[in-house]
């Protein structure tokens, strides 16, 4: 059962990465708050696959340059 939860979580994280790639590499963070759980975003940040950029008018979630 735990393995199924982890695979579902990884699937959602991969889906978010794919979404960001399809949107040109960055998306406004506020647009994801209702679609994606904060834990998925935090996991990608911890794995250093994405980064948050402060634009002065809001925050962008973008794919890390190393990725």
Map the helices and strands.
Blueprint: H1 2-22, E1 26-28, H2 38-46, E2 50-54, E3 59-63
Antiparallel strand pairs: 1-3, 2-3
Q: Name the shape in a single word.
A: globular
Oligomer: single chain
Strand adjacency order, main sheet:
1-3-2
What Rg, in angstroms, do the CA atoms define?
12 Å
Strand content: 15-25%
Helix content: 40-55%
Largest sheet: 3 strands, antiparallel
Q: Could you characterize what this model shows?
A:
The protein is an alpha+beta fold and 67 residues long. The chain has 2 helices and 3 strands. The chain has helices at 2-22, 38-46; strands spanning 26-28, 50-54, 59-63. The chain has a 3-stranded antiparallel sheet with strand order 1-3-2. Helix 1 (2-22) packs across helix 2 (38-46). The termini are far apart. The model has no long low-confidence stretch (mean pLDDT 86).
Summarize the structure.
This protein is an alpha+beta fold and 67 residues long.
Descriptive terms for the model:
67 residues, alpha+beta, three-stranded antiparallel sheet
């Amino acid at each position: 059962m735990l393995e199924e939860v982890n695979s579902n979580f990884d699937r959602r994280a991969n889906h978010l990465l794919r979404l960001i790639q399809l949107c040109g590499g960055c998306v406004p963070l506020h647009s994801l708050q209702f679609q994606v759980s904060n834990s998925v975003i935090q996991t990608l940040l911890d794995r250093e696959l994405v980064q948050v950029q402060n634009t002065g008018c809001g925050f962008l979630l973008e794919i890390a340059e190393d990725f």
